[in-house]
Amino acid sequence: MGEICDRAHCRDVVGSIESFHDQALGSWYASADARPVVGALGELLLAQHRCNYDLWGLEDDARRRDVADSVIAATKRAIDARNQDRNDLIERLDDAILRAYGNVDTATAELHSETAGQMIDRLSILALKIRNMRKLADDRSDPVLARECAAKVAVLEEQRCDLAVCLRHLLDDFARGARYFKSYRQFKAYNDPRLNPALSSGGS
User: Which pTM value belongs to this model?
Assistant: First the structure.
């Protein structure tokens, strides 16, 4: 994947992230391919969102009681692998966005503790929560549950709107040198046999 072109493109893509997430979910739940936003950043957004979509289904499957323990163990291993992909893609999103802001003078800027990639990941998860909760809210077979879920949808939509505004403000502040973020490496060790003694032959 190539580098994204500039800050304006980055701001435009991130500004439409809510509808992008919703459109991708609509395609995936209909067993169709989602069309990415044009450009490298769009491809990263799609791949990262897909990780959360896959994890949503795997987390549901991991809580089944009607299958053998071996199936649950295999599902848990798949969750570990997909989570690793998710974390790697968050870091790649941060790297791509930071490249677009590489020439901004941050000498007097305030450091923001959460990265843009982490906020995008939270927006992706909120999109999944809203879509699945709305499906329950629209199911009239249990009116009490439907009303409960409808109230939760309203809260989740407010949370997503708030977070999206915060992300846009972060990028706007970054562009004018008022705030910035760094790309923080997670250095996940549990999937690496060199770093996790439980995976090495001599581990205890």
Answer: 0.89
